[in-house]
Structure formats: structure tokens, C-alpha cells
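Hey everyone, long-time lurker, first post.

I ran two proteins through the pipeline my lab uses and got sequence/structure pairs for each. Pasting them in order. The first:
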Amino acid sequence: MPEVRPWRVVDSDTVVADRWIRLRADTCVDASGQTIAPYYVLEPAEWISVLALNPEGEAIVVEEYRHGAGIVALGTIGGAVESGESPLDAAARELREETGYEAREIVDLGATWANFGNHTNRVHHFLARDCMLVCAQSLDDSETIAVHVLPMDGLDEHLSQSYHQLTWHKALARL
């Protein structure tokens, strides 16, 4: 059985770098000496995904346009972790900004790689319990988000993003 070993990066060029994303093109050499180039790697910020529940145990979810897929979709609360911010603080901030809700308790459900084939970031999953509406949404200029309160039963059938589904499943294990 062959030994699986990491590739060696012999060169790396930044293709794009802005406030949203960094894309690099690596030249790599694998264990057998074969060159793989260019191998593109995205370096976005860490992400958070929050399944929020009101005191009655209903899910607070968001509906918004997702340009990559070209669809309007239902999902968990989410966003990027800002520089210097902890994933837990990002979860509380995104919950408040996107929905106007605050949680009595936020439970860390762990992190998974967003797409470890070509992304450097992880998704940090959270369960927000006993969420109460405390203010109006505070959205970015490019955001239009509808907030829905739905039963947990069958919610996974409406979540089309893979890591939103994973957050739902991880949350179920904690309920």
C-alpha cells in the first residue's frame, strides 16, 4: 500500500487578494515527483453557521439570494469571522445583524473544513438557544434577508447548503 504524503509547494503566486477572498496559484510536487501546477487555493475567512431556536424550540432561519448558485434559498444564519474576532463572537454578531435576535446561550458544535480540497478555511457550527427578538436587522447594503420561524421537524429538507444541513444535524445531537 502506498504511503500518502503531503505535496511540497515549490512556488506560490497570489492571483487575487481583496477584503473578501485571497486566491493563490501553487506549483506543487507530489511524493512521486510529479509537478501539479497551477493548483488553485482559496483563502477566505473562517465561516460560521448558526442554527437558532426560539424558546418554543422553533428554528429561526434566513432566506436570501445566493449568487453562486443563482437561487433564493433558506439557510442557517451565517457569515465570515472578521479579523480579530472569535467564531463565537461572530456567531452572536451575525445572529443579531441578520435576524435581530439574541440568544440566551450559544453552544459551540465544533468546526469542519469548508472544502479542504482547495479552501483553507473552516465552518464553525453553533446552536443558539432561547433566542428573543431584540432589535431590527442591521444588514449590509448588498443584503436582503427574510427571517422565518419554522418547526425543526423536517427543516433539513429545506436546507440546500451542505454545511447548513450539517449544523442542523449537529444541533439535533445537542437537543
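...and the second, right after it:
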Amino acid sequence: MDIRQLKYFIAVVENKGFSRAAETLYLSQSTLSKVVKSLEDELDTKLLDRSNKQIELTESGNIVYQQGIQVLHSLDNITNQLFDIENLKQGHIHIGLPPISGTLYFPEIIKTFTDLYPKIDLQIYEAGAYKVKNALLDGTVDIVVSMELESEANLDVIPLINDPLVVYVNQDHPLARQSSVTLTDLKNESFIALTSDYELRKS
């Protein structure tokens, strides 16, 4: 049994005969009759009672008709859902974000996205850069936005912004007189540091 046979059989039932169904399908009546007969032969049962002037469904035919309607409806649903996913109308996106990126840049971005695509479910996984990278590698998330990490052969990296690191010091601090500082300048300073999960810790 194939979808074409089901469609043609359903058309015959809904048009109450081969003649009108053939016109609707742009087929010859003989071609349509052969397709329906091949479906009956394949199922080894009579689907239509042709003894009267107007064809009628047999008990088996009624079952095939009802189930066929559901099959075609399910196929339409599959097609529509795939179309929606391909055209960003619905779906799920899992995003990995370090807390700093999530706080500074993404609230407005996420709001704009959800306004444009309300049926797409955004799920945020928040962790340090290395953890979100590992989540991307193992398939837990679909996309990650973080500081640049060591390159991976199986990851595509798209630079978004170039955001320099800055250091804040008291105006009386010796470094306050410098227009820029290096990490070497900071080697004797004390910091409240992030954990090793964060790329900033490595910097």
C-alpha cells in the first residue's frame, strides 16, 4: 500500500464515484479504477460495493477510509512541522552561556528573539566557559556564546565582538597613572578570582 493508493481511494469515496474523483485528480477514470483495484488486491479484500448505481463502502472499505484519513492527516502534520522548523517558526534551542555574558549582553537579545519567534523554546544552560564548551561537545546544548576558547577541530567559531579586559583601581593606586597595564603589572596584586571553569581565570 502506498500514499497514492490511499489518496485515490479516499477521493473516490468523498466524490461518491470514480467519474467525479477522476476529474478532481486529473486522471482518466480507467486509471483511477485500476489504482483502487490494485489496493483491493493488495489488501485482499473488497473496499467498494459497485453493485448499485452509487458505490458504497464495504465494512473493510470503511476501516481503510477512516484509517487512511488519519494517515494523510499525520503526513500533513509532519510536513507542516518540518516546514515550521526549517523556517524558524517552532522548535527548541539550547544555549550555553557563561553568567557574565548572559548578564551583560543577552537579556535584550533573548527578549527580541522570543518576540520574533514566540513558538521557539529557548533553554539556557549557564556555567563557566569550559563547562558550556563541554556541553556543546557532548550535545547537551546547540550553541555556546563565550570568551574565545582553545580551538576544536569539530567546532565552528564565529567571532561576535572584541571586548578588551579592563582593570579598575583606586585613584591613588600606582597603576592609576598608566594609560594601560599588562598582566605582568598585575602579578603582585590581589584579586577575587573566578573558578577554573572560567576562561577569565586562565587569562
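Reply from user beta_strand_b:
Welcome! Quick read of the second one: The chain is about 45% helix and 10% strand. The radius of gyration is 32 Å.
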